[in-house]
Structures are given as C-alpha cells and as structure tokens.
Amino acid sequence: MKLYIDLIFFLNFGFDFCLLYAVRKILKRNVKLYRLLLAALFGGGSVFVLFLPMNTFSLFLFKVVLSIGMVLIAFSFKTPRYFWKNMCYLYLVSIVLGGALYFLNVQWSYKQEGILFYHNGLSINVILLLMITPFILYTYSKEMKAYKAKYSELYELEIFLKNKQELKLTAFLDTGNRLKDPYLHRPVIIVDEKIQVRGDKEVLVPFHTIGHTSYLHCFEVEKVKINGEEKGKVLLGVSPKRILMEGVDCIIGTNLLEG
C-alpha cells in the first residue's frame, strides 16, 4: 500500500485549521489567524506517527498531547477554565465533523437492500471532503451561536402565590421591558394567557403599546425565585395574548433582575 505523506499532511492541516477556526467563531476568541495556521501545522505533524511503533493507548496519549499543544498555540493559556473550554469545544467540533463525514461516507459508499448494506465500490473523494468540511463546520458554528444567543436570555422561575399556588415557568428576559405598578413600583412578570393563575388580590397595572393604552390584570406574589435566587416583591400579570416564543411561558424585565 502506498502512502503519500504530503497528501496526508495536507489533509490533517486542512481539517485541523477548520476545527480551530470553528472553535474561534463559536467561542468568539479574539486570536490572530496566523496562530490558527501555526496550530494546524503543529497538528499536521501527527502524520509522522505512522512510522512509529505505538500501541492503541500510546497513540491515544499522543493525540491528547497533540490537541493540548494545538489549543495552547492557537488560543494560548489565560485561565484553567478558558483552556478547558477551548479543549472541550475542539473535541466537540471534531466529533460533529467526524460523525457528519462518516454518515456521508456511508450514504455514498454503501447501498441498502431491505435491512442489508453492502459496499458498492465508491467512496468520498478527497477534494469533496475538503469542500464539504467548511460547510459542515460553518453550519454547526452558526447554529451553536444562535442557540447560545437564544438560551442565554432564558431563566427558570419558581413563583409562589399567596393562595399557595406554585408555578414553575421558563422566562425570557426582555431588556426593553421595565413594566411596574405605579404605586409600589413592583416589577411585573408577564405570563402567557394559557397559564392558569389563581390569585386572591387583583391589581390593575397600566401599560402602553404603540397608539394604545390598556390595563394588565396582575396578582400579588408571595415570593419568586429566578434560577434559585429569591427576589423581592413582584406582581404576576396575565398577558392578553399568547407569548409566541418556543418554550417560553413568561417575560421578565431587567428591573426584576436588578431587584
């Protein structure tokens, strides 16, 4: 069997650079491009292991040391948490890319008849691999950034009303919402109309929308916990419309977090 060292080195270099670049984009690391290139060159050096007699465990240790070196070269060392997060995302992105390429190779190289699979003599071309890899990592990094942006604004709420009713809800932080009652200045949590709220004492709080003023039906709350942290006095207002956000039951404002 012939091994083309230059081709293997080029493939390793290309994949390592794509992986490091994806980590840089997902974690928003402010590092120079040349550091990623140097780290990818260092990672490409693993091709020379092909000529060393190493068992499975030794090869595993070598790959761990190699990945540590790549991360240190690309992102340097600032804190243990910073380093550990870079390492975790490097392996996570590697798993995603490896799984995607394996799936494509199986779909391309095997033919199915019923529950049987057999090789049809085809395989993914090297050039095609290099073309597909950036697309896979771009899509993954884009979805990861969107996921982090969305779920960084979500909070777990435990609401205890004065009639002993308890609610466990998922809240979205609306930074433009600072609604509060005009008398005691208590922040208002706006819950979806589908939530069955049974309150003893009802309070009407005026709110304004574009060209419209109305009143929100609110109830006094015994206490509320946001991500396990207890907050001060608040009101629970029932929205006159559905909250059309996936997985969200209520909306809170920054004034509640400040309190």
Write the layout of secondary structure elements.
Blueprint: H1 5-27, H2 33-44, H3 56-75, H4 80-109, E1 110-113, E2 116-119, H5 126-151, E3 154-161, E4 166-174, E5 188-191, E6 202-209, E7 212-226, E8 229-231, E9 235-238, E10 250-253, H6 254-258
Parallel strand pairs: 4-10, 5-9
Antiparallel strand pairs: 1-2, 3-4, 3-7, 5-10, 6-7, 7-8, 7-9
Please characterize this protein's 3D structure.
- By secondary structure, the chain is of the alpha+beta class.
- The protein has 2 domains: 146 residues, no CATH class; 105 residues, Cathepsin D, subunit A, domain 1 (Beta Barrel).
- The protein is 45% helix and 24% strand.
- It is built from 6 helices and 10 strands; from the N terminus they run H-H-H-H-E-E-H-E-E-E-E-E-E-E-E-H.
- The strands form 2 sheets. The chain has a 6-stranded mixed β-barrel with strand order 3-4-10-5-9-7. The protein has a two-stranded antiparallel ribbon with strand order 1-2.
- A hairpin with a 4-residue loop joins strand 3 and strand 4.
- The radius of gyration is 27 Å and the shape is elongated.
- It starts with a helix and ends with a helix.
